[in-house]
């Protein structure tokens, strides 16, 4: 992947990965090894956390579609090598939060995905992107669940 084409986004827009896509299965050991390395990388590259949460949902029986999505993250990393987190002291630090959800993202169980990021000044101190535990009946409900999960 050293000479791969750099890409500006870690995942294609509106890509839907499903559990039963009836595609050829990928090598589980190789797929898990790649995801383990990428999960380790999320400590300094929070821009891939959401994509990683989607790609790692079906690690027990990954299809070629999931493996292709994981390799796309490597293409994105090549484009964004200089991106990352660097902390240094700062005098004025306000707590800022961003919370959002994506309603009915999962085709398999119709659950939405929540995400949040908390900043102290310009430094990110906490973030999360995960599937909601309950099914929301509307986008407003998904936003309410996302806000509640970020607070706790």
Automatic annotation (TrEMBL):
Highest taxon of the lineage: Eukaryota
Protein name as catalogued: Uncharacterized protein
Record lineage: Eukaryota, Viridiplantae, Streptophyta, Embryophyta, Tracheophyta
